[in-house]
Design goal:
Arc Repressor Mutant, subunit A; two-stranded antiparallel ribbon; single chain; 5 helices; 118 residues; alpha+beta
């Protein structure tokens, strides 16, 4: 069985040489929101803790306020959580994705019709 054709957009916000926001970073924020831990979020995405931590650090450094706060581990355990600002940034990003897809819906349908059969 073949999958039906579909479109995807990859919105990225660049700040200098760094990518402040992109699809992978948004997925990481959502995983952090669910798990409350950078290591658990990384595991759920098949990513190393170090890679996830670097992505979080880039996001936090790119904005006027941190998107994620962390607590050091120990007896009570550590953890990470999205700040209210991080939740707001995530919502803005998802709204932009939805608007972008909606704005090209007619063109997407026209292109799908022109695809060769599989």
């Amino acid at each position: 069985m073949t999958a039906s054709p579909h479109f995807s957009l990859k919105l990225r916000l660049h700040r200098g040489d760094a990518i402040a926001l992109g699809p992978g970073k948004m997925e990481l924020l959502e995983a952090l929101q669910k798990t409350g831990s950078i290591s658990s979020a990384a595991r759920s995405m098949g990513m190393s803790y170090r890679r996830a931590w670097l992505l979080v650090d880039t996001m936090n450094q790119s904005f006027k306020q941190p998107l994620v706060t962390t607590a050091t581990g120990g007896k009570g355990g550590g953890g990470a959580m999205l700040t209210d600002f991080g939740v707001e940034i995530l919502a803005h990003y998802r709204a932009m994705e939805n608007k972008a897809l909606e704005s090209i819906k007619a063109e997407m349908q026209q292109l799908k019709v022109l695809l060769a059969d599989q």
